User: Fold this.
Amino acid sequence: MTKIHRVESLENQERIKLFEMDNDYFPLPWSIESWRSLDLDSYSLFYLFNDKNLIGFALFHTLEGDTLAHLLKICVLPQYRGEGRGKAFLKGLLERLSVLGLEKVFLEVDFENFPAIAIYKDLGFENVHYQENYYGAGRHCFKMILSSL
Ligand SMILES: CC(C)(COP(=O)(O)OP(=O)(O)OC[C@H]1O[C@@H](n2cnc3c(N)ncnc32)[C@H](O)[C@@H]1OP(=O)(O)O)[C@@H](O)C(=O)NCCC(=O)NCCS
Assistant:
């Protein structure tokens, strides 16, 4: 049974754990300094739990009064992937953002990240731009937007 939890405050140990997961699973991870200075007033952070185990997280940039959110990171730990949890997690997150007054979400995704692209398309995101070498040489990205939450 999975549950989504919105994170209201972060201990130093959690920032280190997020930094480690970011390094393990994302093409452009943040520095430890960025994780240490992450301010939850302008970013929305969510954890995904399976029973009591943390199995994923998602981070959005959400500015007060703005209706556009930027999905920066979403991840499910490798041993929990491929069983619909990633899609259910993002679907649940979009519902939460809608309740918070957000209307649109945009994101960048590696052009070869097929599981992520499958989820985004399934949930209604559309490609709006293709940017070459976004993640480094030969590592292109799609920019996608969900225009109505
Ligand atoms: C992206 C991520 C969250 C997906 O989590 P998940 O729990 O495996 O996702 P789901 O099981 O819900 O869905 C995966 C979808 O990808 C599809 N898929 C898997 N491999 C695929 C492939 N090679 N080609 C096309 N589609 C593929 C699955 O069929 C499924 O789609 P469906 O529900 O329509 O069948 C996970 O892979 C992850 O954490 N990746 C590392 C971080 C990352 O890349 N995040 C996204 C960029 S910010």
